[in-house]
Design brief:
The chain has helices spanning 3-15, 17-21, 24-36, 42-48, 92-98, and strands at 56-59, 74-77, 82-85, 87-90. With 116 residues, the protein is α+β, with helices and mostly antiparallel strands. Strand 2 (74-77) and strand 3 (82-85) form a beta hairpin. The mean pLDDT is 91. Bound molecules: zinc ion (ZN) (2 copies).
Length: 116
């Protein structure tokens, strides 16, 4: 990511995450990730050995937590000393599950971040 991109993503994450997802750079990167994953949900593939069409690109490091990685398909994970996926193609159901949006809300649902 360039300095300008990092600045923009950081600003979006802090003030208006919607604008990040409307950004032309995000659209480009999102398409790249889906193409790289052949539009297949990577979680369904690895976990359930089944094919499902990916509709979403998910930030493993959430936008709010790491806006500096927002457009990076890979990142260096210091815990494993390996380059791992930061952006990953998921189907709708897996995306809901990884965010825990399907778990009946014990906490206030209004506090749930729906935009990363
Ligand atoms: Zn899936
Ligand atoms: Zn997500």
């Amino acid at each position: 990511m360039t300095d300008e991109e990092r600045q923009y993503a950081t600003q979006c994450a802090a003030t208006d995450p919607h604008s990040f997802y409307k950004w032309s750079r995000w659209e480009e990167v999102r398409t790249e990730v889906l193409r790289a994953d052949h539009y297949e949900c990577q979680r369904c593939k690895l976990k359930y050995h089944r094919y499902r069409r990916a509709t979403t690109v998910h930030h493993i490091n959430h936008l709010k937590a790491r806006p500096d990685l927002a457009l990076e398909m890979y990142y260096h994970n210091p815990a494993t000393h390996a380059d791992e996926r930061n952006l990953i193609s998921l189907c709708h159901d897996c995306h809901e599950e990884v965010h825990g949006w399907r778990i009946p809300a014990c906490q206030d649902p209004l506090t749930v971040e729906r935009w990363d």
